[in-house]
C-alpha cells in the first residue's frame, strides 16, 4: 500500500468524533493544495427526516448566505452527487442553472473545486468537496492526484459514516437471522404472512414470529417499517 494510503488510514482510525475526523481530512486536503474542505453525509433513516451531517471550513458569512438562500435545493453539485458516483469539477456550465449561487460563491473566494460522492452498504450518501480561491484544477493535477483525492473521499466517508451509525442508528448493528432476512425479503415483494408461509413451507404463526423478532431488533412499529429499514441498512 502506498505511503499516502497508509497515512490516511492510520490518521483516521483512532479518532473519537466526527469533528476530529473532519479536522484530519482537512489537514490531508491541505497537503493536496486545497484551502477549503467540505463533507456532507445523508443517512436515509428516518426516510421522512433523514439525518444530515455537514462539516466544512467555509467562512461563517458564506455558510449563512448558503443557508439563508436555501442554495442546497439548487446546488448542482449536490444534485449530481445524489445520482452519480462520478467526480465533478466546478465550472461555469455546471452552475448555469444556479447563477446566483455561483456568483455568491465566487464573491466569497470559492472559485475552483472538485467534488466526489460516496455511498456505502448501509445506504449512507457522502459528498466531499475540495476547493480553493486561486489556481484552477488542471488536467495534469488530476492525473497526479486523482487517486489520492478519491481515496481521501472514500476513507472520510467510511470513518464518519461508521461513527454516525454507531452513535445515532443502533439498528445498523442489528443481528438478523437468516430466516428473518428471508421473511423480510418476501415481505418487500408484497407477500402476506400466509403467502410467505407457503413459499417457505412453514406455519403462518412461525412467519409472524420472525417478523415480530425483526421488528424488535430494528426498532420498527410494524412490518412495513421493519422491511424498509432492513432494505435501507443493506440487510436485504
Structure explained in plain terms:
By secondary structure, this protein is an alpha+beta fold. The chain is built from 10 helices and 5 strands, in the order H-H-E-E-H-H-E-H-E-E-H-H-H-H-H. The protein has helices at 3-13, 18-31, 60-68, 76-83, 99-107, 139-168, 178-188, 193-200, 204-217, 223-232; strands spanning 36-43, 51-56, 88-89, 112-119, 125-132. A 5-stranded antiparallel beta sheet has the order 2-1-5-4-3, with helices on both faces. A hairpin with a 7-residue loop joins strand 1 and strand 2. Helix 1 runs parallel beside helix 6 (139-168). It is elongated.
Q: Report the uncertain regions.
A: none
The arrangement of helices and strands along the chain is: HHEEHHEHEEHHHHH
Give me the Rg, rounded.
21 Å
Determine the strand fraction and express it as a percent band: 5-15%
Query: What proportion of the residues is helical, as a percent range?
Result: 40-55%
The total count of strands amounts to 5
Alpha-beta content class: alpha+beta
Q: What is the rounded distance between the termini?
A: 33 Å
Strand order of the largest sheet: 2-1-5-4-3
Mean pLDDT over all positions: 89
Tell me the major beta sheet. 5 strands, antiparallel
Using the alpha-carbon principal axes, give the shape: elongated
The number of helices is 10
Amino acid at each position: 500500500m502506498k505511503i499516502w494510503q497508509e497515512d490516511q488510514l492510520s490518521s483516521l482510525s483512532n479518532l473519537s468524533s466526527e469533528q476530529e475526523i473532519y479536522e484530519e481530512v482537512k489537514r490531508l486536503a491541505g497537503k493536496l493544495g486545497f484551502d477549503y474542505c467540505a463533507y456532507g453525509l445523508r443517512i436515509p433513516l428516518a426516510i421522512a427526516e433523514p439525518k444530515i451531517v455537514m462539516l466544512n471550513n467555509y467562512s461563517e458569512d458564506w455558510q449563512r448566505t448558503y443557508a439563508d438562500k436555501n442554495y442546497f435545493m439548487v446546488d448542482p453539485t449536490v444534485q449530481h452527487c445524489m445520482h452519480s458516483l462520478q467526480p465533478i469539477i466546478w465550472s461555469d456550465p455546471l452552475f448555469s442553472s444556479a447563477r446566483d449561487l455561483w456568483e455568491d460563491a465566487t464573491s466569497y473566494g470559492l472559485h475552483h473545486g472538485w467534488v466526489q460522492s460516496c455511498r456505502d452498504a448501509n445506504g449512507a450518501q457522502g459528498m466531499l468537496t475540495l476547493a480553493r480561491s486561486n489556481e484552477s484544477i488542471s488536467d495534469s493535477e488530476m492525473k497526479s492526484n486523482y487517486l489520492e483525492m478519491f481515496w481521501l473521499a472514500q476513507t472520510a466517508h467510511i470513518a464518519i459514516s461508521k461513527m454516525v451509525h454507531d452513535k445515532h442508528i443502533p439498528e445498523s448493528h442489528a443481528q438478523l437471522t437468516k430466516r428473518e432476512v428471508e421473511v423480510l425479503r418476501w415481505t418487500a415483494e408484497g407477500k402476506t404472512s400466509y403467502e410467505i408461509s407457503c413459499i417457505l413451507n412453514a406455519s403462518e404463526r412461525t412467519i409472524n414470529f420472525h417478523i415480530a423478532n425483526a421488528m424488535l431488533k430494528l426498532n420498527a412499529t410494524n412490518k412495513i417499517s421493519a422491511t424498509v429499514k432492513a432494505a435501507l441498512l443493506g440487510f436485504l
